[in-house]
């Protein structure tokens, strides 16, 4: 027995050494044990190791000493004599234990049964007799469809125990070498537990509120489903009546031979009452009331004016149009014969019946809807890659308006450190100024950087400048956007989004790599551009050698000049022709219908020339295009051809490029666009502009804690910019579908800057990381509201990024290193601490891209059926994880995406984002470990980031958010739609006909208090909680006793 104990200790030390330092030598292990025995204390043992030249960490030294100290049998004082060395294969084969099966150990066994979902294996040399399931996904590292092709009955195999629930065990063959029985993934669980526990005690960057000691990992995967009260009542009634034996009831515990509690567990889970933690940190004392009572940012000059009424009316009209389409679709379904309509009326139809009915519905819709015809016409059009010019690149550059002023512009840049350049869209300032600076020799001192407000603009402009510069993209000319860097050591001209320049400033406060910077399209006043104004204004004081150029397409240059030390303004004259502006005599109630009528009037009565229509979003643009196509089809040959071309951000690039092609002879082009066509696109041939006077703006609502897109009147500057689109090719006309009085009284002079109307959480985190602590004194061009700043700091404090003094914590500094929203950063860092980063990386990547699912109208049933395959009972976040893992198993195949109605481009983007995040985690030495099938850990990590988005089921209808108590509903596309868990968190709110929660996940309420103690707390049992006070008792009613019939006013006599 002494020899066995000694061998067991030596094996444990060998295992520790191999995992930590990569040396699994038995002789070394025995020598280390000898040193530990002689030392007597951990400190003496560490010193003895150092004297003998061992480079062990303190953690490893303590672990080995603890193993030696815990050994039950004293070891010999000296190493034993050498004995014949075992062959490698003999040493690493599984050893029979003779006892019960242990978790994460490898055993030999024989296959007893092969099924479609895997095989059953009986373990050898295990007491009591144990048989477990090897799921089909755990048989081989390769994806297999038929287990019988890989294993046969009575075949001897090696398996690893990966899960255990009671007497049932889950086994894995793919984690074992089937020849030698060697464990391909050595056991690390105990070591990781020890290490993480020490990190939690010693590392202040660990997520505040996350206590790993309190986390009970359930090795069986998903937690058993809790029984509802009616289900528990039925189970007890069945047991009492003797209809079913107790062993067959869902509440029976086979190990204990008795019944479990209501939740199917040994203990009844208490119903936790959660409420908000009202504790105020020192730096926000007295400020929280300002944030709570703040109203939504005012972005409309006259909330009661005709334009705002028209915007609200249009929202109602859009809702009515959607309802009309739904009613038409339902009428078609009602026209289906009764036997085919039955599946839709039957709440429990047979498998496949609804699918067949949906197929029939799709067939009818495809043949009757105008939209399908217009979409088909769009798809039939040949792909376009823009207008091909016959001029050489040199001739094209020489023909730009900026080329005539090249020498004057270069002199102005040379003579002044700061310069404001005003030029119309298409004047050439974006593509030419960087090249002029390079020709001046500024690249000898560093790179020339040019910021763009949009990712697409940064990529497309860099590609064009690389062609003109005569190099490959990524060499002398490159670009950098979030999660993508296309530059090299030889890059001298770099285009980037304004957010990426902010991140570079975070790493290098002097921006020493740059000799000149251009802030392009500054009139758009994005949130990052406004922050860069303040940062660069301070930087040019410290760096006299840095050239700064601010460009704008509008005439609000005086404000920029005043802000940047009264610097000079350089104006590039545009190719503008006179534009006749026409107003309506009365306000329009339905601006979409008015725009359609105006387009038809222009097409049928005005001379040749293309039309540009400004609308607010994709839904309006699609509706406009459908109706125009329908009306042109009705006119037939009586009217000349009208080519209808939509333009919005989500449209593929090859379809957007069609707008640059000239219209054929005898035809007219009608471009229907969002405000992207105001300044970002230059479309030649436009003679007529139809301006309804509206756009969509992002506005932050402090009470809801979210940004939302709101239809609002445009500014006077935008109206002027839109009318100018008609005067680029020749004299044109602008039809403004609002009165001249509305222009003067209901439109702001300029748009509200984004920094004054959006969430500032990420900006505040970045500024704090840059060492700017007093944000109220930061030199903003237009300071944001104090309530918005306070709300952002409250959110960061709750996330653990700020301490009680308002200073950045170590955890917050780590959050600032990720190019993500603070909630996603918190989620990812917490996942590394909880040992589930492998899964959370995928979830974060999938949430960072557009929706991967698409649902074509003519194939809705097939798309829904494919999506349902990925549904997870826990919620949408794990569904996204399942989608990515399935795509990974399919070898990242594009055909697999098409087969499952997934957007391959979105999946590729998610893959790129995930790779970038992995490199950041590696840079900061965070472990990327998998939680296996312990989904509770994954859900905890998500709650750690999005606890502010918690919602509880409302007794009357839907859900209510925990923060404001606002009524919300689960989005119909969610995996939890109609499942209605008691508690959940959501990723975002979507405002349509009602407030929908998108990407929701079921949670346990106790996690909110455990993971966000600064934000939530348990309600005092002795007092009435806020949630209880908010509840309202609603009298019951039915069809015989209508709602409100109990009132005296409703009674007769």
TrEMBL record:
<dbReference type="InterPro" id="IPR012340">
    <property type="entry name" value="NA-bd_OB-fold"/>
</dbReference>
<dbReference type="InterPro" id="IPR014001">
    <property type="entry name" value="Helicase_ATP-bd"/>
</dbReference>
<dbReference type="InterPro" id="IPR001650">
    <property type="entry name" value="Helicase_C-like"/>
</dbReference>
<dbReference type="Pfam" id="PF21010">
    <property type="entry name" value="HA2_C"/>
</dbReference>
<keyword id="KW-0539">Nucleus</keyword>
<dbReference type="InterPro" id="IPR007502">
    <property type="entry name" value="Helicase-assoc_dom"/>
</dbReference>
<keyword id="KW-0547">Nucleotide-binding</keyword>
<feature type="region of interest" description="Disordered">
    <location>
        <begin position="72"/>
        <end position="102"/>
    </location>
</feature>
<dbReference type="InterPro" id="IPR011545">
    <property type="entry name" value="DEAD/DEAH_box_helicase_dom"/>
</dbReference>
<keyword id="KW-0508">mRNA splicing</keyword>
<protein>
    <recommendedName>
        <fullName>RNA helicase</fullName>
        <ecNumber>3.6.4.13</ecNumber>
    </recommendedName>
</protein>
<feature type="region of interest" description="Disordered">
    <location>
        <begin position="172"/>
        <end position="209"/>
    </location>
</feature>
<dbReference type="Pfam" id="PF04408">
    <property type="entry name" value="WHD_HA2"/>
</dbReference>
<dbReference type="Pfam" id="PF00270">
    <property type="entry name" value="DEAD"/>
</dbReference>
<dbReference type="InterPro" id="IPR011709">
    <property type="entry name" value="DEAD-box_helicase_OB_fold"/>
</dbReference>
<keyword id="KW-0507">mRNA processing</keyword>
<dbReference type="Pfam" id="PF00271">
    <property type="entry name" value="Helicase_C"/>
</dbReference>
<dbReference type="GO" id="GO:0016787">
    <property type="term" value="F:hydrolase activity"/>
</dbReference>
<dbReference type="GO" id="GO:0071013">
    <property type="term" value="C:catalytic step 2 spliceosome"/>
</dbReference>
<dbReference type="InterPro" id="IPR027417">
    <property type="entry name" value="P-loop_NTPase"/>
</dbReference>
<dbReference type="InterPro" id="IPR003029">
    <property type="entry name" value="S1_domain"/>
</dbReference>
<dbReference type="GO" id="GO:0000390">
    <property type="term" value="P:spliceosomal complex disassembly"/>
</dbReference>
<feature type="compositionally biased region" description="Basic and acidic residues">
    <location>
        <begin position="174"/>
        <end position="200"/>
    </location>
</feature>
<feature type="domain" description="S1 motif">
    <location>
        <begin position="104"/>
        <end position="174"/>
    </location>
</feature>
<feature type="domain" description="Helicase ATP-binding">
    <location>
        <begin position="410"/>
        <end position="573"/>
    </location>
</feature>
<dbReference type="GO" id="GO:0003724">
    <property type="term" value="F:RNA helicase activity"/>
</dbReference>
<dbReference type="Pfam" id="PF00575">
    <property type="entry name" value="S1"/>
</dbReference>
<dbReference type="GO" id="GO:0003723">
    <property type="term" value="F:RNA binding"/>
</dbReference>
<dbReference type="InterPro" id="IPR002464">
    <property type="entry name" value="DNA/RNA_helicase_DEAH_CS"/>
</dbReference>
<keyword id="KW-0067">ATP-binding</keyword>
<dbReference type="GO" id="GO:0005524">
    <property type="term" value="F:ATP binding"/>
</dbReference>
<dbReference type="InterPro" id="IPR049621">
    <property type="entry name" value="S1_DHX8_helicase"/>
</dbReference>
<keyword id="KW-0347">Helicase</keyword>
<dbReference type="InterPro" id="IPR048333">
    <property type="entry name" value="HA2_WH"/>
</dbReference>
<dbReference type="Pfam" id="PF07717">
    <property type="entry name" value="OB_NTP_bind"/>
</dbReference>
<feature type="domain" description="Helicase C-terminal">
    <location>
        <begin position="578"/>
        <end position="771"/>
    </location>
</feature>
<keyword id="KW-0378">Hydrolase</keyword>
């Amino acid at each position: 027995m002494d020899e066995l104990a000694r061998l067991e200790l030596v094996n444990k030390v060998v295992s520790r050494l191999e995992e930590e330092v990569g040396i699994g030598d038995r002789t070394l292990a025995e020598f280390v044990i000898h040193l530990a025995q002689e030392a007597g204390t951990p400190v003496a043992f560490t010193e003895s190791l150092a004297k003998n030249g061992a480079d062990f960490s303190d953690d490893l030294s303590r672990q080995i000493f603890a193993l030696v100290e815990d050994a039950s049998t004293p070891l010999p004082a000296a190493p034993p004599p050498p004995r014949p060395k075992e062959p490698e294969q003999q040493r690493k084969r599984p050893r029979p234990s003779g006892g019960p099966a242990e978790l994460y150990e490898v055993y030999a066994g024989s296959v007893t049964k092969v099924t479609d979902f895997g095989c059953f294996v009986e373990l050898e040399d295990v007491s009591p007799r144990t048989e477990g399931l090897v799921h089909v996904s755990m048989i081989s590292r390769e994806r297999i469809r038929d287990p019988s092709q890989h294993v046969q009955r009575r075949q001897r195999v090696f398996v690893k125990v990966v899960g255990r629930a009671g007497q049932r065990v889950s086994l894995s063959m793919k984690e074992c070498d089937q020849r030698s029985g060697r464990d391909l993934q050595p056991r690390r669980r105990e070591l990781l537990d020890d290490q993480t526990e020490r990190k939690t005690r010693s590392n202040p960057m660990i997520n505040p509120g996350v206590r790993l000691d309190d986390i009970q990992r359930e090795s069986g995967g998903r937690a058993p489903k809790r029984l509802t009260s009616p289900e528990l009542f039925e189970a007890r009634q069945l047991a009492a009546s003797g209809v079913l034996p107790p062993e067959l009831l869902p509440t029976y515990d086979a190990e204990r031979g008795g019944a479990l509690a209501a939740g199917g567990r040994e203990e009844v889970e208490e119903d936790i009452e959660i409420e908000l933690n009202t504790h105020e940190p020192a730096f926000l004392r007295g400020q929280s009331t300002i944030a709570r009572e703040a109203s939504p940012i005012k972005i409309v000059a006259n909330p009661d004016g005709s334009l705002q009424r028209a915007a609200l009316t249009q929202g109602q009209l859009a809702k009515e149009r959607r309802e009309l389409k739904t009613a038409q679709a339902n009428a078609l379904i009602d026209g289906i014969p009764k036997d085919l309509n039955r599946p839709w009326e039957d709440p429990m139809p047979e498998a496949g019946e609804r699918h067949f009915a949906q197929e029939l519905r799709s067939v009818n819709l495809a043949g009757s809807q105008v939209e399908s015809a217009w979409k088909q016409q769009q798809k039939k059009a040949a792909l376009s890659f823009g207008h091909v010019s016959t001029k050489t690149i040199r001739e094209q550059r020489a023909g730009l308006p900026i080329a005539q002023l090249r020498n004057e512009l270069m002199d102005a840049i040379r003579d002044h450190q700061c310069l404001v350049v005003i030029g119309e869209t298409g004047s050439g300032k974006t593509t030419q100024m960087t090249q002029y600076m390079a020709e001046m020799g500024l690249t000898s001192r560093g790179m020339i950087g040019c910021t763009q407000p949009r990712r697409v603009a940064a990529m497309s402009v860099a590609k064009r400048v690389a062609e003109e510069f005569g190099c490959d993209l990524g060499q002398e000319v490159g670009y950098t956007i979030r999660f993508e860097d296309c530059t090299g050591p030889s890059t001298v001209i770099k285009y980037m989004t304004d957010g990426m320049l902010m991140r570079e400033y975070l790493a290098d406060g002097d921006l020493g790599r740059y000799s000149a910077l251009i802030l392009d399209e500054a009139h758009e006043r994005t949130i990052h551009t406004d922050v860069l104004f303040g940062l660069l204004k301070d930087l040019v004081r410290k760096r006299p050698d840095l050239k700064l150029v601010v460009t704008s397409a509008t005439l609000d240059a005086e404000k920029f000049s005043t802000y940047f030390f009264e610097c000079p303004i350089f104006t590039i004259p545009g190719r503008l022709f006179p534009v006749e502006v026409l107003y309506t005599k009365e306000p329009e109630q339905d601006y979409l219908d008015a725009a359609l009528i105006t387009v038809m009037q222009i097409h049928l009565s005005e001379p040749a020339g293309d039309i540009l229509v400004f609308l607010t979003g994709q839904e309006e643009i699609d509706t406009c295009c459908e109706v125009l196509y329908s009306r042109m089809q009705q006119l037939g040959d009586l009217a000349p051809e009208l080519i209808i071309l939509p333009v919005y951000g989500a449209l593929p690039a090859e379809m957007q490029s069609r707008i640059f092609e000239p219209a054929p002879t005898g035809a007219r082009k009608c471009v229907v666009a969002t405000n992207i066509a105001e300044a970002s696109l230059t479309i030649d041939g436009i003679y007529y502009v139809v301006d309804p006077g509206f756009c969509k703006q992002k506005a932050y609502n402090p009470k809801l804690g979210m940004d939302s897109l709101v239809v609002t009147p445009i500014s006077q500057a935008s109206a002027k910019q839109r009318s100018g689109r008609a005067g680029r090719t020749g004299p044109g006309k602008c039809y403004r579908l609002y009165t001249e009085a509305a222009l003067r009284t209901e439109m702001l002079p300029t748009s509200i800057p984004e920094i004054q109307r959006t969430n500032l959480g990420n900006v505040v985190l970045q500024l704090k990381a840059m060492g700017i602590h007093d944000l109220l004194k930061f030199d903003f061009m237009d300071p944001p509201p104090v309530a918005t700043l306070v709300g952002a700091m409250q959110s960061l404090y709750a996330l653990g990024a700020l301490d009680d003094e308002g200073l950045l914590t170590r955890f917050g500094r780590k959050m600032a290193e990720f190019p993500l929203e603070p909630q996603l950063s918190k989620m990812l860092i917490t996942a590394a601490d909880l040992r589930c980063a492998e899964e959370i990386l995928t979830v974060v990547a999938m949430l960072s891209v557009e929706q991967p699912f698409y649902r074509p109208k003519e194939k809705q049933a097939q798309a829904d059926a494919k999506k349902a395959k990925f549904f997870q009972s826990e919620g949408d976040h794990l569904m996204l994880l399942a989608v990515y893992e399935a795509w990974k198993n399919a070898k990242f195949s594009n055909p697999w995406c098409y087969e499952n109605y997934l957007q391959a481009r979105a999946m590729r983007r998610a893959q790129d984002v995930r790779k970038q995040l992995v490199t950041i985690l590696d840079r900061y030495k965070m472990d990327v470990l998998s939680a296996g099938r312990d989904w509770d850990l994954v859900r905890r990590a998500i709650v750690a980031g999005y606890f502010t988005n918690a919602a509880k089921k409302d007794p009357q209808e839907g859900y209510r958010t925990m923060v404001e108590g606002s009524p919300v509903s689960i989005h119909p596309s969610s995996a939890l739609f109609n499942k209605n868990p008691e508690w959940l968190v959501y990723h975002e709110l979507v405002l349509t006909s009602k407030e929908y929660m998108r990407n929701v996940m079921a949670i346990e309420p106790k996690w909110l208090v455990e993971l966000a103690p600064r934000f939530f707390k348990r309600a005092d049992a002795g007092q009435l909680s806020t949630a209880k006070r908010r509840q309202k008792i609603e009298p019951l009613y039915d069809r015989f006793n209508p709602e409100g019939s109990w009132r005296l006013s409703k009674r007769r006599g």
